[in-house]
Design the sequence.
């Protein structure tokens, strides 16, 4: 009782001191608590400000790489090359190989953006751009031989001559004596002539054996073989030593000339590396294609000259006609 009375009496007399002491003790405890946990509070407050997260939910970061790449594509100017290389944002595009430069391009293009080569989808001899300009079908090879304007010249002939296939007053001046036969192209083919042998005749002249394809022919100076005239012969023997034995090596040469003045040199027992021009002729009715050379006949006409620009044909009356064609890559 005495103790209780002492504290009660002392508390009443020193109430302000006791309250101050209690508040001081409370503040000390609070400051001690914050001092111990200050690093945690700093990290927690910083993380909440930066990541905007709470203890109950977290937001997953988004991978922005794909969007960054898309932004780069959108900022770049339009380029044809983007059509031929598929990336994550490009649709699936069918491609074809350009026969001129060998690069892959979209199948719906009429002109190669890399080399400006004009495509011919139906391979009828007329480029897509030309056919579309005159409302023709770039996927129908049959329209090459139709006559839209009724001027007796096919669309293909008008393309070759640069005339308008829709205007009957615009037509090629060239007459095609072959009628249904068309000159498709001129190409080079290895010469099928082999100088096999020769012999001297009693009169001092020479007779030459020339293989022409599957047969051998005997000709003299001035005579013709497959459209070539034998014009000169140079006999030459060269001495050589083989395994200690001296032998004579024949290196004789035979010179031939075509009707258009082209010279060809045939070496004895050697296959020639020369190439000659051939013409590819198409029958537009049967759609058969023939490879022909100088001297071959097409009906009543004979092919007299083949050049890079076309061919010349002669009839039985020696009338000459020229046929041209538009060269194009295949």
Sequence:
């Amino acid at each position: 009782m005495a103790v209780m009375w002492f504290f009660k009496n002392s508390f009443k007399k020193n109430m302000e001191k006791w309250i101050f002491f209690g508040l001081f003790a409370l503040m000390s405890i609070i400051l001690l608590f914050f001092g111990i946990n200050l690093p945690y509070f700093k990290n927690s407050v910083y993380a909440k400000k930066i990541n905007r997260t709470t203890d109950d939910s977290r937001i997953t970061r988004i991978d922005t790489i794909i969007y960054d790449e898309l932004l780069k594509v959108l900022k770049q100017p339009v380029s044809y090359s983007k059509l031929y290389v598929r990336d994550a944002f490009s649709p699936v595009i069918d491609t074809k190989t350009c026969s001129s430069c060998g690069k892959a391009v979209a199948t719906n293009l009429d002109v190669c953006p890399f080399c400006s080569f004009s495509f011919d989808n139906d391979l009828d001899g007329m480029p897509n751009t030309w056919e579309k300009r005159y409302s023709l079908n770039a996927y129908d090879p049959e329209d090459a031989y139709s006559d839209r304007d009724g001027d007796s010249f096919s669309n293909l002939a008008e393309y070759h001559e640069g005339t308008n296939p829709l205007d009957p007053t615009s037509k090629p001046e060239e007459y095609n004596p072959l009628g249904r036969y068309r000159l498709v192209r001129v190409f080079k083919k290895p010469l099928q002539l082999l100088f096999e042998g020769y012999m001297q005749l009693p009169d001092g002249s020479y007779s030459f054996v020339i293989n022409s394809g599957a047969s051998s022919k005997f000709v003299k100076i001035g005579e013709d073989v497959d459209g070539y005239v034998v014009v000169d012969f140079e006999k030459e023997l060269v001495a050589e030593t083989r395994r200690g034995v001296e032998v004579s090596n024949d290196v004789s040469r035979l010179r031939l000339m075509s009707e258009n003045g082209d010279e060809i040199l045939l070496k004895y027992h050697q296959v020639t590396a020369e190439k000659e021009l051939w013409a590819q002729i198409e029958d537009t009715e049967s759609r058969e294609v023939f490879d022909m050379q100088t001297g071959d006949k097409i009906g009543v006409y004979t092919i007299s000259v083949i050049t890079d620009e076309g061919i010349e044909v002669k009839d039985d009356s020696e009338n000459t006609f020229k046929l041209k064609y538009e060269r194009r890559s295949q």
